[in-house]
């Protein structure tokens, strides 16, 4: 049984999706999805424990061995990302039943859960697989599910956002497909492990350069790296709240994982960082992303838009850490992967609670909410502080490592800019705080109650995690460090 | 040399046409058409890549020693399925957008959105 | 003694934080809530005094908590400077609580539960700062202090409070994130440790340019020390209720700032290194300018709290100057000034609050002749002013004396002149207030019908702190010994 765990991680959500279709009642479908996602989380926890204890797990799908069959290869890096994806998905799902009740028509509830499971299966598949083409397939499964999920949003702009995302996402995925094809052409293999051994021999060819370029651009589209982020704000802003929470926390993270996997494991550090001027490009784009997106966030009128732009900025931090090209830098990126997933899922879910009560996420509607929804607003403040990087929250831990990495490398201007960037976060978070706590509720609005427990419990689970992992960093730092070191050591 | 690799030229030209349509056209259906051409170009790239000169289809038979590589063909079968799903979803979205906005022109949709803001 | 000293050390940080739970739980019953606050403050002071006894007997008291990030531990240790700060802060918390009860009730403030709860958190973080054994721990409590005092500053919830709060949080968080955190991490990268060590953590052949740059980052980053041009938050924070201004902006927050400056100068750089850094001189002049300019600005203020706020900025400059002088007299003077100024300034704020509650006046021009109605308050104001100026028979005499000795020792003549001129300016902006209150009574254009002395709890509180100013003149030994022991460790 234990030996089949890697397959189980994908199969559980993938098979649950069609099964869920038979459950007509919303509540049943929800319970079923929660259980499926929860089991997937248990599987990921077990996998992470195994990997940390005894090293990389190799699983041959269907018993076909490596170059012919598809191989699942789980090292510290993907075990870590698996845990992030499956656990955030499970916690966010707890709020789904309450949230979609108001945002999605009754007859589509079951379909919503089916899509949710498909998206989860796709994301897990991307992370777990050791086969380059398989990455493409799973990426498209999760993306197609995500487009549909976004289109479920009640505002008609959700449709338009989903359409734009579909176009951009498909171009990105096709770019990745081209890159994979070119790699296959040069090496005759699709297995990541094989690729990493055969690519260095042909590294100096134009085909490999082209392959790398296509893959990086394709992945960056999915990452929403500035300036390829245009699809993200609207998609996040108009999707149903639960969908935003889960997508913001997982889908871009998985794309960042791909970036790391392709750059470090498959093409190798020496190719990615010396032959290609990747460092310079990424550090500039990362910093530009931080400043441009944070500044845009400050001027948003809709809080969902505000946090969506903030997500683009946070991706900038991850990219900066990655581009430093040291173990500490990569560690900072991996930590922020985890930490940002915690912050943004908490924030977007809390916004979902606000939407549930007042039906809008306009900043002007936040007036007076500090008194009317104290627990929800406290959660937003806590999440916001984490976003700024205040000590005792997870945001501080990532910022600490990022600045440390930049300074260790002698890049002190980068360190300064990273810290200045967090001051912009202070500005946009405080706009919400001031609106909520220093103003009377707008005239026309009736009494507003605190959000139901269906929201408060998952939101506060996530907020507590934000604080807990900000104070006890053993799990996140240890795993991130081990993963970063293994990527810099012998490639898996 | 240049003509010998004509399949790649076809691929590149098709890709460019596809991408150009996606970017330049404001009609949502035309965009999807462009996207399909773009994807198909990549399919052709995979398929032609696997063809070995003078070789036959990968079916075991007497007296034949050279086979084309079957793997990319199989891969592209999968990719085609993915492509169909994408197009289907894209068209479905276009229909819904038409219902909601009364138009499938990008400009008109953007205008309506801007007015709402 | 039932508890070990280690347990007391931890409790002195944790207890105020736990008290917030009790305060919130008792929110519906004001009497119980305030009893919880006073009880906690008394127990806290008892702990701190016990720790002081332990320190005097030469015991080494330190506690390690968990590692926040590998290699960086939350840990606490007691040394003389921190002890001094903790003694002052915990003692004055008791007095302020007594004062608050009178003030908040007669002023009918809203949200008093939140007020007491945030107050307790702030005191807990001050204890954390005072006893921090490394820079990392100190930084964390420094930030917690900023955040926990924000609701206190914006207590009124008005547009003015929002604006004040924005400046308060904006400057304090920005400087701490952009400069202080950067300085901490750079120190960690350069020296490999963040533990406070007598003599400093940098080794002898450290690049002085780098260390000098780090020093600038520290001095600018510790915004709570209110060195110009990062002093604007302090006047802005005066929108807070007076007890908050009194304890937090005369004692806890601002003193946490200069305490951190001193701690960094003595235990991160060490006075030997400090004296050879190329940037020290520049920062000394900056602090000196801050002393003088703030005094000049104070003279222009008609609002009493604003005048006191600028006076605080100026007095904080004294402490920073003393720390940067890198002489033993400078360090002794600085650390004693933390205590002396605390007693003096808290009394002045108490008086300002008492006048506001009893006579509803906040402008100095309206206080003429008030000495007849409020003799005790005005007498206290007079004595506390003397202490700020630094003349006998008040405690302020000693610290100013040592600070001047410090400038003499370091041969900083310009600074010496700056400090002396500023003391003269102190006379010019503080003494006229009680003077006019007592002697210009007849010319007052304002109606004083029905004005009485302030509520009794407030009067008790300000009398105690006034006594403190006087007692510290006669009996400064404990403070002096602690201050002297800082460099001896």
List the helices and strands and how they pair.
The complex is a heterotrimer of chains A (492), B (117) and C (489).
Chain A: H1 5-20, H2 26-54, E1 57-60, E2 71-74, H3 76-103, H4 109-128, H5 132-151, H6 157-187, H7 192-198, H8 206-223, H9 232-238, H10 241-266, H11 269-275, H12 278-298, H13 303-324, H14 327-358, H15 369-372, H16 374-388, H17 394-408, H18 412-438, H19 453-471, H20 474-488
Antiparallel strand pairs in A: 1-2
Helix pairs in contact in A: 1-2, 1-4, 2-3, 2-4, 3-4, 3-10, 3-14, 3-19, 4-5, 4-10, 5-6, 5-10, 6-8, 6-9, 8-10, 9-10, 9-13, 10-13, 10-14, 12-13, 12-18, 13-14, 13-18, 14-16, 14-17, 14-19, 14-20, 16-18, 16-19, 17-18, 17-19
Chain B: H1 6-24, H2 28-50, H3 70-101, H4 106-116
Helix pairs in contact in B: 1-2, 2-3
Chain C: H1 5-25, H2 30-56, E1 62-69, E2 72-77, H3 80-106, H4 112-131, H5 135-153, H6 159-191, H7 208-221, H8 233-236, H9 242-269, H10 271-276, H11 280-300, H12 304-325, H13 328-359, H14 370-373, H15 375-389, H16 396-410, H17 413-430, H18 432-439, H19 456-474, H20 477-488
Antiparallel strand pairs in C: 1-2
Helix pairs in contact in C: 1-2, 1-4, 2-3, 2-4, 3-4, 3-9, 3-13, 3-19, 3-20, 4-5, 4-9, 5-6, 5-9, 6-7, 7-9, 9-12, 9-13, 11-12, 11-17, 12-13, 12-16, 12-17, 13-15, 13-16, 13-19, 13-20, 15-17, 15-18, 15-19
Describe this structure in words.
The complex is a heterotrimer of chains A (492), B (117) and C (489). Chain A is globular and about 70 Å long. Chain A has 20 helices and 2 strands. The mean pLDDT of chain A is 88. Chain A starts with a helix and ends with a helix. Chain A has a two-stranded antiparallel sheet. In chain A, 66% of the residues are buried. By secondary structure, chain A is mostly helical. Chain A has a domain at 277-492. Chain B has 117 residues and is mainly alpha-helical. Chain B has a single domain, classed as Helix Hairpins, CATH 1.10.287. Chain B contains 4 helices and no strands. Chain B has helices at residues 6-24, 28-50, 70-101, 106-116. Chain B is elongated. By secondary structure, chain C is mostly helical. Helices cover 75% and strands 3% of the residues of chain C. Chain C has a two-stranded antiparallel ribbon. The radius of gyration of chain C is 21 Å and the shape is globular.
